[in-house]
């Protein structure tokens, strides 16, 4: 695994065109933040169903954009059945880190 499945990423970029694909990449941070807010609210409310749905949405979004590591990590949260304690907050911090690294890798891949 890696941040990006480069062959899929390049395929999608070629099929859509770099400009169109770049526009999709620009939408990712806002979409991610929207789902992240749902996750944080679900943690606050101790609502596993909403937590799982938001993680599932991030997983799908990442998978559709060839973001392997982000999709895999979101998949682990999609099935999380533990308590909403410091451990889950550490997991969200890791998800944030992966999201930032993934978007940066996508921009770099489009440039290079």
Characterization of this structure:
- By secondary structure, the protein is mostly helical.
- The protein is 83% helix and 0% strand.
- It is built from five helices and no strands.
- Helix 2 packs antiparallel against helix 3 and helix 2 (18-45) packs antiparallel against helix 5 (86-111).
- The longest helix has 28 residues, at 18-45.
- The protein is elongated and about 45 Å long.
- The model has no long low-confidence stretch (mean pLDDT 96).
The helicity comes to: over 70%
Radius of gyration: 14 Å
- Global morphology: elongated
Number of helices: 5
Secondary-structure element pattern, one letter each: HHHHH
Estimated structural class: mainly alpha
**Major sheet: size, sense and barrel closure?**
none
Strand portion, in percent? under 5%
* pLDDT < 50 runs, ≥5 residues: none
């Amino acid at each position: 695994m890696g941040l990006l499945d480069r062959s899929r990423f390049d395929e999608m970029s070629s099929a859509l065109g770099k400009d169109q694909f770049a526009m999709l990449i620009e939408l990712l941070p806002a979409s991610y933040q929207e789902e992240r807010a749902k996750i944080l609210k679900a943690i606050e409310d101790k609502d596993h169903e909403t937590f799982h749905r938001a993680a599932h949405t991030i997983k799908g979004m990442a998978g559709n954009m060839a973001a392997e590591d982000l999709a895999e990590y979101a998949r682990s949260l999609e099935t999380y059945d533990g308590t909403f304690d410091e451990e889950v907050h550490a997991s969200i911090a890791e998800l944030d880190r992966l999201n930032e690294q993934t978007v940066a890798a996508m921009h770099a891949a489009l440039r290079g």
